[in-house]
Amino acid sequence: MRAAVGSTPIHSRLFNNRYQPYRWMMDYKWAQPTEVEDPIDDQVEALVRRVFSVTDRTLGDPRRSYLVRYGGQLLNPDSEGAYDFLYSSLRPHGLTPLFRVEEGRQAVYLVPSPPEPRPSNRLVNLVLLVLTMMSVLFAGALFAAGNDLPGTWAEGVRFILTGWPFALSIMAILGAHEMGHYLTGRYHGIQLTLPYFIPFPLSPFGTMGAFISMKAPPKNRNHLLDVGIAGPLAGFIIAVPVLLIGLSLSTVSTLPAAPSGGPVLLLEGNSIFYLGAKYLVFGRLLPAPESYQGIPALIYWIRYLLAGSPMPYGGLDVSLHPVAWAGWAGLLVTGLNLLPAGQLDGGHVLYVLFGRERARLLLPLLLVAMVGLGFIWSGWWLWALLLFVLGRQYAEPLDQITPLSPGRRVVAILGLVLFFLVFIPVPIVLM
Question: Looking at the domain that runs over 29-64+67-112, which CATH code has it been given?
Fold first, then answer.
């Protein structure tokens, strides 16, 4: 619970790490041939036949984003090793192989290798990082001060510096999230940018988060999962101790008995995990109503988790310390990131578990659910619109034949479980 300085709605980050698979295929400038020629020489074909039993062969053309397609079956069940061999062998020829499964049959596509990506301007990353740190300092100071704003320049400096506990906490969570993506991607040899942090001083958090741009698609489903899940897990690991420390610094206070004309209060929403964290620290479920008014306790809490109502006027709730506010934001970040759609981290998890077609079938259900939640908290309508526009594209790996390893399948399932534990149906309620 916190006193609001204004009525600025929450702007949650677009944690979609903008992967751009195969963009280079669409940008490739095909030469218009005067006659059909075979673009693949005997040496290249021999390399393909070393790992793949070819049953049919189809030449591509400018309307298809490939040079040649081979249908058949891998000679060795070690599909990952076969892909590594073919990938490294074809690089000197300016070609990249794609492993695909089509109607239960295996296929190998040869496409032109992408051009070497241009190096990023790291000065942009640094400038955005500094601006974001200043922005979250300001947001943290507003949270700590409430309505007590400075009147002089000297007071203004002291005012800004009071925001450091929140700023340090939120940047640690966001930084861990993005570096989880970055370091895992580098480990797998994927070219990607440093994080781009997004300052937004008028939001309750002072930032709209950050994103990382991948300059090439991941090799296989295992790599895609590793990169996708590393961010939420790293951020969550930092958010949990930040939240618990912040809650231990917070206090429990009485809520107004009825709506008043005084300062507006923002009542942060509960996820299952957050509800449990408050219970662990304070020994009770919060916000605790003055009475359940004849409603069974279980029904009350289910209603409150899903709809943020009935409002607990006259009850008790935690007055959040800035560090606790940052920890709660970390849970919100994790939940939004793990939305199972498109190029969000949760979309990668969904893709590696069920494949592209099944993942796409689930998107309409998610959109309907978010539109329904929008009648409770209107911010979800914006997210539904974003997912409608961006959620139909998935980051597809180069090798789609290699299956997800058993250990990573467990990690992917745990990622979906984590989403349900930290997802907040109603992030903010005004009192």
Answer: 3.30.70
